[in-house]
Amino acid sequence: MLEDQDMSVQEAAAVVQDARARARKELVISAPLVYTAWGLVWLIGYGAMWLSVRGQHPYSGPSGVSIAAVFVLAGFAVAAVLVIASKAAAGIDGQSARYRRIILATWATGYLILLLLQAAISSSVSTRTLAFVGFAGPVLLAGLTYILASALGRNRPAFALGAWLVIVGASCAWLAPAAILATCALAGGGAFLLMAVIETRLRAHAS
Hints:
Elements: H1 2-27, H2 32-53, H3 64-89, H4 95-121, H5 127-153, H6 156-171, H7 177-206
């Protein structure tokens, strides 16, 4: 009888531990699909904009086609995040669900602020400053959001990604517009794609 009770306690503890691990993993929306989607946004989208501004003298900004490509890719990435988040929310409630809403609300609010800031300063600052806000700003925001998510979900890989994105975004303050696009495409997009590979391997080992 005592052995049965011990087994029940152990099984209950295992269930609780598994639920907590899943909550931490889903809290940061760390699915490889999401990392891959955002990696392609930075790598292909920003890469296309960089190609469109190479050799511009003076700098006049990315082409309309390359900007449209970024928005299309970003739309798919946002859709992937929403799908993954909705599936995760189906099995998690309480504190984890609140944390997820905080993370998504933080990112959405930050991005809206970036758009408003860019519109407000577009006619009063240099092209370099405008490029930093418009191109490196989203990278900085993504990094800070992942740091927040990693702190709430205790996810070290997400923290590493967030810290790297912050470093990449901040370093763009000293770069010319074309170099900002190249840096965000390679260092930002490459980091997301690398994280997709790492996360896939971590999930394979855990299963």
